[in-house]
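User: Hand in any protein.

Assistant:
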Amino acid sequence: MHTQQSPSPSVDRRLSVLARHLEPSSSASVQGSINHSIVAAPTSGYAGAQSVFSHIVRAPEDPILGVTVAYNKDTSPVKLNLGVGAYRTEEGKPLVLNVVRQAEQLLVNDRSRIKEYLPITGLADFNKLSAKLILGADSPAIQENRVTTVQCLSGTGSLRVGAEFLARHYHQHTIYIPQPTWGNHPKVFTLAGLSVKSYRYYDPTTRGLHFQGLLEDLGSAPSGAIVLLHACAHNPTGVDPTIDQWEQIRRLMRSKGLLPFFDSAYQGFASGSLDTDAQSVRMFVADGGEALVAQSYAKNMGLYGERVGALSIVCRNADVASRVESQVKLVIRPMYSNPPIHGASIVATILKDRNLYHEWTLELKAMADRIIRMRQQLFDALRARGTPGDWSHIIKQIGMFTFTGLNKEQVAFMTKEYHIYMTSDGRISMAGLSSRTVPHLADAIHAAVTRAR
């Protein structure tokens, strides 16, 4: 026999409220009851309410993307945006590679394609082909199945996933990044849980590599520390080590057990050769040691907005690689669950088709060659004007960016007087130049160094 329990006070209150609403009453008394019993919460939209976010201050514009914001507001017909790292044609227009359009058409015509979720690790073909592209098809690491590769959200996402994996599972939480480096690097690594320190890289006096400082700083780094290395076309300086210097860096890092984390954003885009631009990475993998590599297809396939990238972790053996992958999946799952399918399918279609791959290498070299021509034309234009200083670094540096050596005041002068936009550190995107705009830039640089010193 069950004894009946009396209702709890909270149940009594709910029944009482319900009974009042069921009682017949005039609309006026109902309205009065509502006004009496309902109090506006801070998150409601009643008139005069203060936002719960009123205390938030306006954040500054991103130093790189903010350049484009300022450029877009400028109404001058001669304005020039050299801030953002995106390739432009000789006419100053964005470029979609012909080989990309062909790959997309093949994908559209394939009626068997579906839009189901990818696995957490992404498109299998894309991962396999991406590892081969950066490490080499004959890489022993690939043949021995000791590389785990996961599709990520372009280079930034690859760096973030790799950094968070290291923060969770690697014994050292300090990462050394070059000074200077891409402005997003310190933020990505810090938010992932790593402690960021820097090593000397660029020498403002020579506008070249501070090689001795680099060796000294890495030599004094604690054993096992992580070291960020730009695979090629260092951003923002355009200054790369020579092959001999890379070998010295490799020997030093391996002797101290420093873990290399490569950022490869410009493979094939720097020299025009995919193999040449991957040499630094392949040297570190060939010695049998471990390494991480973040890849991006934004620049070399022009897939900026598709956000296509990959993270490869080279391990000692296949068993370790398999366990590493299982933990990387646990990083990705709560972050974005799994990556998008379209951009990775474009890349895989191009990389696995011999004809498309060949056409891609030709288009890639054409882009790299145009940037090299822009470097030469700018150097020649400055020399023709007798601009004070040695500007040979413009043709010695490589890749999309040039570190001009201009200071903040000179950059501000060029923006105000010549409507030329760039980051305040004097970095310019050579891909944003054309034969038509080189004279305008040369005039602005000449005026800046002679009047705004």
Observations:
- The longest strand covers residues 147-153.
